[in-house]
Structure formats: C-alpha cells, structure tokens
Sequence to fold (1032 residues):
Amino acid sequence: MIFTAQQIAEALNGVVEGDPSTEVTSLSKIEEGKKGTLTFLANPKYTQYIYQTQASIIIVNEDFTPEKKIPATLIKVKDAYSAFAQLLELYQQTKGKRSGISDRAYIAPSATIGKDVYIGEFVSVGENTIIGDNTSLFPHTTIGNNCRIGNSTTLFADVKIYDECIIGNECTLHAGIVIGADGFGFAQQQDKNYRKVPQIGNVIIEDNVDIGANTCIDRATLGSTIIRKGAIIDNLVQIAHNVEIGENTAVAAQTGISGSTKFGKNCILAGQTGFAGHLNIANGTIITAQSGVGRNIKEENTIYEGSPAFRHKDFQKSYIYFRRLSELVKRIDELEQKLKDNTK
Amino acid sequence: MIFTAQQIAEALNGVVEGDPSTEVTSLSKIEEGKKGTLTFLANPKYTQYIYQTQASIIIVNEDFTPEKKIPATLIKVKDAYSAFAQLLELYQQTKGKRSGISDRAYIAPSATIGKDVYIGEFVSVGENTIIGDNTSLFPHTTIGNNCRIGNSTTLFADVKIYDECIIGNECTLHAGIVIGADGFGFAQQQDKNYRKVPQIGNVIIEDNVDIGANTCIDRATLGSTIIRKGAIIDNLVQIAHNVEIGENTAVAAQTGISGSTKFGKNCILAGQTGFAGHLNIANGTIITAQSGVGRNIKEENTIYEGSPAFRHKDFQKSYIYFRRLSELVKRIDELEQKLKDNTK
Amino acid sequence: MIFTAQQIAEALNGVVEGDPSTEVTSLSKIEEGKKGTLTFLANPKYTQYIYQTQASIIIVNEDFTPEKKIPATLIKVKDAYSAFAQLLELYQQTKGKRSGISDRAYIAPSATIGKDVYIGEFVSVGENTIIGDNTSLFPHTTIGNNCRIGNSTTLFADVKIYDECIIGNECTLHAGIVIGADGFGFAQQQDKNYRKVPQIGNVIIEDNVDIGANTCIDRATLGSTIIRKGAIIDNLVQIAHNVEIGENTAVAAQTGISGSTKFGKNCILAGQTGFAGHLNIANGTIITAQSGVGRNIKEENTIYEGSPAFRHKDFQKSYIYFRRLSELVKRIDELEQKLKDNTK
Fold:
C-alpha cells in the first residue's frame, strides 16, 4: 500500500513540513531509513541521523527545530513515539490472526471454550477451566484445572498456568511464562531440614497486563499474588508469593521481588532491581537499574538508587566521591603530614 | 469441615488462650482475616494486625504477650510458622492427587514406569529411563534417555531433563526447569573463535530437593553437578557445570553460580547473589542479597555482603560512611582551609 | 577402547614425559582421577591435585614444571585445556546421534524439511518454515511461521522460535530458549496507561552461535535483533529488541542488555552484568561480574567494573578504600581533634 505524507498527517493529527505528496510504502529505523520508507525521531540520541537518513518521511515532535536542512518531508506531532506506534499498529493489523482449534490439542471435557478462540498444537487445557472469547493459546501452552482466562487475551507458546489461577481480558503473556508455581516458603526445623509450607493461594492477573518471556509469578501461600490492571512486566522477572504489583507499574527485565511486597501505581522498576520481602512501595516510585530495596518507601514519586538503595540524588553525590576515593585519601595523607610538620 | 480451637490446639501441641469452643472453617492471612477463619502471627512486622483482624483463632509463638486486648482466641505454640504450615499440609491433603497415564504421552518402549505414577498429556519419556513409584509428571515434561527419576517425586509442567541425569526421591521440580543442559565451556582459539568443550558429565539431584520454576542446572564437563539432599532452590537460578550445593542449603531467586564452585551444608544465598567459579564456601555461610563472592570462604557460619563481598559487619560500617561521603569531603575541605589559615 | 600415552601424544602434537606405554580407558577430573583414566591440568588453582591424583595420564601446558615427583605420565602440549577438549570431542562422537521424524510431531504442510533431520515428539513447525539438512529439533520445540533454521543446527527440548526469525548453520540452542518474543516497547499515555508499540521486526542468529537454557532474545521493533557469528551466550540471559551482539562475543549467565545496545567483536560480559539501552560498546571490552554499564565505551580492549561501571583499575582502587572507610573517618576525626588542640 502507498500512503502520502498528507494522508498520514491527517491520520495522526499532525502538520506536514515539506512536500505533502511524498509517498511511502513501509516503515524503517532512522539510522537505516531508505527511500520510500517512513521513520520517526523521538530519542535525542538519534538526532544526528535525521540529517543523513534516506527515509522519505520523518515523524518528529512538534517542538523539534532542525539545525540544518533535512531532505525528507517532516510530519510534526505532539508525541512522535506514540504516533509512530499508532502506525505500527495499523501495519500489524494488516497481518492475519491465527484461528481454529487444533485436533492435536487436549481440552478436558469439563473445560469451557469461548467463541473465536485459537488453540494451537499440543495445548493442554485442564478440568473446569474457562477460556474467554477471541483468546489465543499458542502451541504447547498448558493450563491447569479450575483456571479462568479472559477475553481477547494471548498466551504465546508454552505458557504454563497452574491450577486455580485467573488471567484477565486483553492480556499478553509471552512464551515460557510460569504462573502459579509454589511460593518459596519453608520452615526450618531444629535438625536444619526445611519443611515445605504448602502454598494454597493463587495468582490473579487483572486486565490489560503484558508479561515477558520466561517470567515467573508464584502463587500465594494464602490469598492471591496480584498483578493490577495495566501493569507491564518484562522478561525473566521473578515475582514471589503474595506480591502485589500496582496499576500501570512497569517492571523491567530480571527484576526480583520477594514475598508479600506491595507496589503502588505507576512505579518504574528498572532492570535487575531487587526487593526484600514484606515492603510497601509508594505510588510513582522509580528504582534505578541494579538497585536493591530493603525498606518501605512511603513518600510518593521519589527515585532510589544503590544496593542497599537510598535517595537517587544522594547516591549520585556519594558515588562521585567513591570514584575519587583515592584522591580523598591523598588529601588526608597530606593533611596529616602538614599537621606533623606544623607541630614539629 | 468445622474445627474448634481445642481440637486444633491438641493437634499442634498448643495451649488455648480464650474460648476453646471457637470454631473455624478455613485459613486466612492475618491482615485479611475474616470471622470463622484461623490465621497466625510469626513475623513481628505484622503484629499490628493481631489487634484488628476479624479472624476467630490466631496461632502465636508461646512467648508472644499482647499489648492490648485481642478479641480472637489464641493458640500458643513453640513455632507459630511451623504449626501453621502443618495445618496447610492437612488442608492440602484434602485435595485430590492426579493419577493415570495419558494416552497422549509418549513413553519410549525401553523406559520403565513405576507403580501409581501420573503422566500427563504430551509428556515424553526417553529410552532406558526409569520413573519411580508414586511419581507425577505433569503435562509437557520431557525426560531424555538413560535418566532415573526417584519415588514420590513431582515434575510440574514442562520440566526438561537431558540424557543421563538422576533425580532422587521426594523431590519437587517446578515448571520450566532445565536440568542437564551443556555447561558453558569453550576454549578460545588463536583466531578468537570459541571451540566448544563437550560436556560429557551429568546432573545428580539427591532426595528431598525442591527447585523453583525456570531454574537451570547445567551438566558437568566430567563427573556430576550435584544438589545434595534437602537443598531448596528458588526460581530463575543459574547453577553451572560441576557445582555442588550442600545439604539443606537454601538458594534464593535469580542467584547465579559459576562452574565448579562448591557449597557446604546449611548455607543461605539470598536473592540475586553471584559466585565466581572454582570456589569453596564453608558450612553455614550466609550471603546477603545482590552480593558477589569472588573468593573462598573458609570460616563457617559467617555473613558476607557487597560486590565484591566482604564481612557483613564491615560492609555495613563502610556503607554508612559511603552514604555520607559528601559530608566527609566537606570535613576534609574545612580541615584544609583551617590549616591554611593557621599557617598564614 | 584402550589408548596409550604415545598414541594420545601423537594425536595432540604433544610430548610424553614418563612411560609412553601407559594405558587409559576413560576421562576424569584431576581431583577425582582414578587409575586407568586420563585427566588434565590447566587452571593453576588445581595444581595441588597433580601430586595426589590417581589418574594414569595428565595433560599439562608445555611450560608446566612440577615441584615434586608426579607418579602419572605427563603429556605436554601448547594448551592443555584445548587439547583435553579435543579428546572430549572424540569421546562424544562415539555416542550415537538421534535421527528420524516422530509421527507425534506436527509439521505444517507448507514447511520444508531438509535431509537427515531429527524431529522429536510433539515438535511443532509452522507454515512456510524451512529446516536445513542435518538439523535436530528435540521434543517439544515450537517454531512459528516463516522461520528459517540452518544446517547442522541443534535445538534442544522446548525451544520457542516466534514467526519470521532466522537461525544460522551449526548453532546450538538449549532447552527453554525464547527467540523473537515482543520487545518491551510501550508509549505512556497522558492518563498513565501504557500503549503497546507493536514489534514488527525479527531476530537473526548467524552461524556457529551457542545459546544457553531459558535465555530470551526479543524481536526488533523494526529491523532485526542480531547475534553475530561465533557469539556464545550462557543461560538466563536477557537480550532486548534491536540489540546487536558482535562476533565471538561471550555473554555469561543472567546478563541483561537493554534495547538497541550494540557490542563489537570479542567482548566478554561476565555474569549478571547489565547494560542500559542505546549504547555502543567497543571491540574487546571486558565487563566484570555484576557491573552495570550506562555509557558508551569507545576505546577498545578496556575493562570496566562497578554499578555504574568505570575503569576496572580505578574501581579496584576506590573499592580498597571503601572497605577501609571507617579507618579514613577515624583519621579525619583525629585530624580535627589535633587541629582543635593546636589552636587552643
């Protein structure tokens, strides 16, 4: 399909700068843009490429002012990244959706399957489990007994859902995810042996949640481990028993959260962060990458860094001096020497 | 089923404080306890809830002394957490156990299957492999050739066991675990290419071991990677070739252990810890979360922290001053200024 | 099979020291060596065992000089580890290779399967996908539509390849790997909800790449996430969208790399390292374990440590003083006291 800059600008509520009849047929990255493609500039790190790219149309933020001439036609919008995402969505919708129920799948007789569901090869659906309308189960996905999967939800290949877990509507779960394995709960006996504490709770994932590949969310000891609506979770994340992730909270890859810790709304946990158990983390908290949080965070919208973590600004000050510690030691050496000389 | 405080106290060897005829029908968390439920208090962080909970019976440690009146009936026991775990076990036993061998499973003709085994849909069992009595293989589990799985062991959905690996009795392996993949062994050639070192050993998991979802335990180059009896391992842990985990050692989530490192008994490795290769770690060692260990630990029962890790107490002292480094710098600045003034 | 020291030395271009007619029948670790086995010494940490081992033949580096008498026959070679790896390869080749296509596998009608391919039970191969000659797909592996898998490549149990991804020749992918899940791309809306950015690119893995169990490599937003030839990647690694891993770069377990970061050739990323997004890392860079890199690294062949990381040598200096921070504080205290005394 061919689109003109004018057509695209109208679809995105944007303004054309340059030739509105410029035509494109596909999308590209700005550093690899070719003639006939449309690209975008959102991250300032890539600004240099806007002067070099061969792309024919570039979507930019409305406050972008070029420093020199740009051969491409620009479309100015409020938020270039969101606008480009919108085009990607349109592009993806042109691709077909999988459908039908494979006769190589196993569906327990007591399970209930909704309308317009896709169930791939070797899927296994347990007793009394309910699968909602328009939901897709890719090959090898295994769902236990007494589970409930909502409408328009996608479970990619080989997702594992244990018994009694609940997944909402319009969720996306990527390959290899494990939902509802036992929490890591053991009581140490006097002879040092560990005795397993049965985990009789479940996992509840609300609507519009997105979870990355090979992430693990453990079932609660009692009650539920809960992922609130709109949360987004990346790959290889560990979420322990009885944790609660707040609405629209983002959890980057390889983060680990210990048992019973609860997060407010709109938090951002960067990659490889860690959290002790039984904490309460306030709305809007940001934790920088590789940091480790051992205490409650009560004030909203603060940033923490370090392991153990403290206020980001304070950490950064301390870290600057940590990098120069040998200089500081030299200054102390000199002070001692001078004082010695003075008192001779 | 209905139980009275008196009946439960007798089962747990506890003492009732309050009305021994108080009745309960289910279990709850203390912060969510409702009338007719039984809960417990073990972690002091939750003490506040004992004065608010609607739960009818609360199990507490025998040394617990309330600061104000508690409406619930108390049962005092030696170890509240263990006692509650016992009740959870009884509760779980009332749930049925899966049984039977699915005709959608593949079992190699030369494999030997014990008595009262559950084998779910799409399980694959390789040549000459032996599965013990009362063992459960949940859907999609794949076991290679020449493996041996003990009695009363549970492999949840989609566990992957490579050829020649051995799993003991009464083990629990959660979904997505990989046992026996090749160790990360390569010899770099002069042209910078890596040449793979074949990994011809195996993995041995002794009795009563519990392993979490998506954890990986690599096969040995030669000999065996060994997990000793009673060890407990959480989700997403990486255990490299020829590692040895000691008896009753606990390994929390996302910990990574490099090749040939050996741990004694009763160690505790907190979450996201890392270990260099070829180390020996003494019995009873504790490593705090996110710490990285690069040297042998010879003395038993010590605690290490930091990356690289050193003695916990020393780390804590250093970290307190790290947090205040800018204050220290100011003090050095002032000293320099004063000395300058003094020598004018 | 029986081999003499003489025969082995000839095969390895080595020199016998001791009795050239010494015979062995199998391989062992130096610390567990028994009579009739061959072992090797490469890591100096194990030198003590050469004087104790019962192994009959030991391969050593040509510059190795014993401090006391060794009962075993030595074979001196240029690189003992590589030489031993060669023997392991010969040993492994004596084991059979799996073959045949299981009738329990599902192969889409439009897929193309090469010659001498092994396809295990419950494998699923999607539409228009091409599988090369001599390639092995172990049980439960799932390959999407429009993929291309090269020749002589092994995919172990339960590898998941999403649509449109490309895997080269002579690659090894271990169990549980996920290739081509969506990158973690979301645009936050004004109401704080996240809107998913469709990920329409793919993953390209070039020839001779080795990837460890449960590792995740996300598909690109646009274009490709690329793993260059000869790269080796360990278990539980996270590689985000549009990342590029250079030739012969080694990535140890549990490393996490954020979107669009690009690595040169011959880099070494130790275990549990982390990388921010949109970085360029020069050829030959080494990052020590648990370090976190937040900036571009432009100079080749440097070593970085810390979180955030800076030059390894500088980090080590700072860390020595960090360990002694309380001493430094005491010195400052004393200086202040002395100055006070002096000015009385």
